[in-house]
Design goal:
Elements: H1 4-34, H2 65-76, H3 83-111, H4 121-138, H5 150-175
Helix pairs in contact: 1-3, 1-5, 2-3, 4-5
């Protein structure tokens, strides 16, 4: 059994891995956009995610799911986001979510190493399924999965193939674990 210190160390290493891997996801989305693969203006896997320089709103007039989530949270507290706030909201939500989920993963991995199966690939695919395919549509931040075009799902899988192993690579490097 890992002690409290080890769990915190695992959580911090996982969170750092999640930040790096979330950036990797953003780079992959940009690359896919550049080569014309997928549906770049879909709210679920917008090329805007994680990019403060891109516009937050897609051509369809709908915000990226990460921006819309932050906007809803702000609204619940009586705050209205400015255009600049919206530009920052997407990356803030993207990297915060990536770090938090990966931090939890890192903490759990200290006691249950099997969660790192496939060098983090199982983790990445679980996040894709639970967050992208179930959570985001359930919150009304994107259409239901059956109404989204196949390229949207493919982009989601591809980015989480980067996210899971990317998180695991950094987590292992920082915890000196194999």
């Amino acid at each position: 059994m890992a002690g409290r210190h080890e769990r915190w160390r695992g959580a911090l290493a996982g969170a750092a891995g999640g930040l790096v891997a979330s950036y990797g996801m953003t780079l992959l989305l940009r690359l896919l956009e550049r080569v014309g693969v997928g549906a770049p203006h879909h709210p679920q896997h917008s090329v805007n995610r994680g990019d403060t320089d891109a516009t937050a709103e897609s051509q369809s007039g709908r915000d990226d799911a990460t921006v819309e989530a932050v906007e809803r949270l702000a609204h619940a507290f009586g705050v209205r986001l400015s255009k600049r706030g919206k530009r920052l909201a997407g990356p803030l939500a993207h990297y915060t979510f990536g770090a938090l989920v990966s931090g939890l993963y890192g903490a759990v991995a200290t006691e249950h190493p099997r969660v790192t199966s496939g060098f983090g690939l199982a983790f990445g695919m679980t996040v894709w399924l639970v967050a992208d395919e179930i959570g985001i549509p359930a919150l009304g931040l994107s259409p239901p999965p059956w109404k989204s075009p196949l390229p949207v799902h493919a982009r989601g899988v591809a980015t989480h193939v980067v996210y899971g192993p990317g998180t695991e690579l950094v987590r292992r490097a920082l915890t000196f674990r194999s």
